[in-house]
Amino acid sequence: MKYKIKRNDTVKVIAGKEKGKIGKVRSVLREDNKVIVEGVNMITKHVKRTAESAGYKFKREAALHISNVALFDTEANELIKVGFQNTTVDGKRRSIRINKKTNQPLD
Prior knowledge:
The chain is an all-beta fold. The protein has a domain at 10-78: SH3 type barrels (Roll), CATH 2.30.30. The protein is built from no helices and ten strands. The chain has strands at 10-13, 22-29, 34-37, 42-47, 56-61, 64-65, 69-73, 78-79, 82-89, 92-99. The chain is elongated and about 60 Å long.
């Protein structure tokens, strides 16, 4: 299945407690239909102490469901609706992502 959001895309959170925040996609978890966005949905992880090291806490990003984020255009400051278009490049058929409003390719 094709996803409209890829790694390194700029997205805006459109639902949930982090609504309105903008960040860059760090990774896409395809099997869980989730994305990890830099600086959004921060959680605190606790690491128990061991014989070799003391315990500590650290913050990291938790995954968001892919339906709760939308592609964001920073220059136009608006959300992008994404579509797919089949094209032929070097004799091979490919499907590329396009902006539905302007019909310009995103990749």
